[in-house]
Amino acid sequence: SKLHRASTRSARGLARDPRVVEAQKSCASLSTIPHPKQKRLRELISEDLRSNPDSKVIVFTQFRDSVEAIVEELGMIEAVQPVRFVGQASRNSEDLGLSQNEQMQILEDFRDGKHNVLVTTSIGEEGLHVPDVDHVIFYEAVPSEIRMIQRRGRTGRTRPGKTTVLMTEGTIDEAYYWTSIRKEERMHRYLATVKSMGPRQKRKTTLLDYA
Question: At what angle do helices 145-152 and 172-197 cross, to 10 degrees?
């Protein structure tokens, strides 16, 4: 673990603490239990493809580790052709980033139907020309109204689309979701207020203003 590889004495001491060792064992045993979101995600995408075999779906997740796991999970479903789409930075030899050319090729393949599910992190929110899709799925809720709007904006631009947010009851997911909803409502109220004020009249300057 990172604690065992740490260079500080305090970190190494913590790694030997029996309570920490026990907690690590518990976490390792839990890692083999599938998350309920995985089952729901498979159901959603399977439903999309049954109703429209040409459907295109984007799955947004916070973490690159989750991208790998989701692609692997979805790859076991017939008719689902998932693809990993991440940034250019490499974290280690097992988690390499994508070059700009690789990113462009993936998006082109997605647009052409070679892949029908794009699994991505925040890199897919803005700045790149991601094709319009039929369904945007948030694997986790996000607390930012801007990111929520950007992600939703990937669907429904040229044809009807939908958005689904996966949340685990009683977790931070719920707090993040309602936080983003409240922020977005507040933002719309501010915009409506500004719009109702109308354009500001610019006063002409005269020589007296420089006296």
Answer: 90
Dist. CA 154–CA 125, nearest whole Å: 8
| CB contact set of 188 (below 8 Å; sequence gap of 6+) | none
Q: Which helix (H) or strand (E) holds 138?
A: strand 135-138
Q: What is the CA radius of gyration of the chain?
A: 23
**Where in the chain are the domains?**
1-30, 36-172
Burial 133-151 (b: 16+ CB within 10 A, else e): bbbbbbbbbbebbebbebb
Give tens-digit pLDDT for 69-92: 999 999 999 899 999 998 877 877
Nearest to 86 by CA among 69, 72, 99, 75: 99
Structure tokens at 112: 């052409």
Sorted by sequence, the CB contacts under 8 Å of residue 28 that are 6+ apart come out as none
Residue 209: the pLDDT is: 61
Considering the domain 36-172 in this protein, what is its CATH number?
3.40.50.300
Sort residue 160 into left (φ over 0), alpha (ψ -120 to 50) or beta.
beta
CB neighbours of residue 176 within 10 Å: 20
Q: What pTM was computed for the model?
A: 0.72
